[in-house]
Amino acid sequence: MKLYHAIIFLLVTCFTLTSVAQEKPKRNTIDGPYLLYKGDSILVTSTNTEPSIKATKQSTLLKNKNKLVVEVKFSDAPEKDFSLKLKPTINIEPSVWQQPEKILFLSDIEGEFDALRNLLIANKVISNKYEWIFGKGHLVICGDLFDRGKDVPAVLWLIYKLEQDAKAKGGYVHTILGNHDMMNLSGDLRYVDPKYMKSAAAMGYDYMDLYNENTELGKWLRSKNLIEKIGDNICLHAGVSAEINKLGLSVEELNKVSRPYIGFKNLKKTITDSTVLKIFSSDGLFWNRDYFKEQPADEKVIDQTLAIHKIKRIIVGHTITATNVGFYYNGKVLGVDVNQHAGKHEGALYENKQWFKVNLTGEKIPLK
């Protein structure tokens, strides 16, 4: 009898484990919406790539931009749906800012919508209805909205929406471009999830058509900076190398020089301007990893960067380390990149002249 019960127990256990293993987490099968300008009209298009049904496309052609409501939907969790209105105009972002009373720094979201949403809710930047509740605080995203994750358009539209909502409440959202953003805009698609290629084809477009200069998201992304000075900080994606220091350019000048080449294809083969090539090189603002290499960076180079820009610290994403979110080089560099895809969701908060590491619980851990 004991043997019989043991066999039954093993069979039930195996069946349960098999069932659990077969239960895959749901993923959002809706891609979009994308807004493409067609003459004096706007084409709103999206697709549903649910495997159990043939990919379906929804498109609407509208004349009046001001009346358009953009609806972002989630097949896996409709409670996450949100909507927004388009900006009347898209303007180039300022490069230099006064010190805000509080700032939340994030980076490398890379299409992980849930991570972004939950971090913002937990740290009282937005409500669960996507309302801005951070007052006059600023949200700074140090690059990499694209690639790897499953909800890139939703990430982009949420940030787009919050830019308007924050401004209306006296706050601000700073969206700084990283290497993955620059890659997507210029046609380097090595890290793009195949989902996006398939859905673009289902909508009758090439993936690059969805973010070119004649799209709302494409125009919006091209208005962003590679580097900003916010109070005592410069914020960028990767780092400032000795080669960039040698250029002797201010934050405004670095952005002005680089902006015409955001989304430029085959830049190295067609551009001879040495300044542009340095900014876009492996030593440039969105690729450099000197601060976090096995051989530490020369702190004199960091001191030179601080002196050039009259700041106290450099805040970057791009490189994951075991001690991020954290300070380096005697507090002169703050690294905020964490592995969002592996479930580590953290950021850095400046509030009441103090620095904290924050997470999905809303806990504030002092940074030293």
Characterise the protein shown here.
- The protein has eleven helices and 17 strands.
- The protein is α/β, with parallel strands linked by helices and 368 residues long.
- The chain folds into two domains: 30-80, no CATH class; 96-366, 4-Layer Sandwich (Purple Acid Phosphatase, chain A, domain 2), CATH 3.60.21.10.
- It has a six-stranded mixed beta sheet.
- A hairpin with a 2-residue loop joins strand 15 and strand 16 (354-358).
- The longest helix is centred in the first third of the chain and has 21 residues, at 2-22.
- It is globular.
- The protein starts with a helix and ends with a strand.
- The model is unreliable at 2-22 (pLDDT under 50).
Considering the chains and any ligands shown, give keywords for the structure.
Purple Acid Phosphatase, chain A, domain 2; 2 domains; 22% strand; 368 residues; six-stranded mixed β-sheet
Secondary structure category: alpha/beta
Q: What is the CA-based Rg, rounded?
A: 22 Å
Strand order of the largest sheet: 6-10-11-12-14-13
Q: What is the CATH domain class of the largest domain?
A: Alpha Beta
H/E element order: HEEEEEEEHEHEHHHEEHHHHHEEEEEE
- Could you tell me the mean pLDDT? 91
Distance between the termini: 63 Å
Largest sheet: 6 strands, mixed
The CATH H-level superfamily of the largest domain is: Metallo-dependent phosphatases
Given as residue ranges, the uncertain stretches (5+ residues, pLDDT < 50) are: 2-22
Would you tell me which CATH topology of the largest domain applies?
Answer: Purple Acid Phosphatase, chain A, domain 2
